[in-house]
């Protein structure tokens, strides 16, 4: 009798475990993996901004100081090119108001010299929409959607001693790797991001350009 009860209990535990695993497998992911490829000596701060979902009538109160509808992703610069990743929720709940991810803004910083002031920055912007236009790129079958961009240093002189200063400029790349006029970033659809990867791939060209008045003459070594 005792052996039979033990067998029944074991079967019940096995069935419960199977249902628990199945439930986890069937539950859709509510986040995605955000990857950022950074050149050497680059860092960024990302702000994920959430807004009321389409059709919701609730509004967020105006605030001073903390903003629970913002999520911040920050990383330190490294002397070598590297990739960082973050788990980004697609939905949030603030004061009972259902929110969805609306955009991600990246403040990009880079060092071009050893002095503490030898830094420059630009920003990138990703719009997260309910649906895309037919001509916009969708999530690939691989489950990794990449937004490629290229950064470049623009130089100029400053002051009576004509000290060199550099300005960072980052632009997006098209599917063939050609530079676009638009800012780094792009537009993605929210729903296909679930459980997938969105990659912001930042590159840095070795070719520098004058920031203003293209009257510089290139010579060997500079």
SSE layout and pairing:
Elements: H1 2-26, E1 31-38, E2 42-52, E3 70-74, E4 82-89, E5 91-94, E6 97-111, E7 119-129, E8 144-158, E9 163-173, E10 179-183, E11 185-189, E12 197-204, E13 209-210
Parallel strand pairs: 1-12, 7-11, 8-12, 8-13
Antiparallel strand pairs: 1-4, 2-3, 2-6, 5-6, 6-7, 8-9, 9-10
Please explain how this structure is put together.
This protein has 222 residues and is mostly beta strands. It has one domain (30-210). It has 1 helix and 13 strands; from the N terminus they run H-E-E-E-E-E-E-E-E-E-E-E-E-E. The strands form 2 sheets. Strands 1, 4, 8, 9, 10, 12 and 13 form a 7-stranded mixed β-sheet that branches. A hairpin with a 7-residue loop joins strand 6 (97-111) and strand 7. 15% of the residues are buried. Mean pLDDT is 82; it is low at 12-26.
Q: What about the largest sheet?
A: 7 strands, mixed
The helix-and-strand class reads mainly beta
Large-scale geometry: elongated
Succession of helices and strands: HEEEEEEEEEEEEE
Which spans of ≥5 residues are poorly predicted at pLDDT below 50?
A: 12-26
DSSP strand tally: 13
**Strand content bin:** over 45%
Rg value: 24 Å
Overall tally of structural domains: 1
Number of helices in the DSSP assignment: 1
Mean pLDDT: 82
**Helix-residue proportion:** 10-25%
**Distance from first to last alpha carbon:** 91 Å
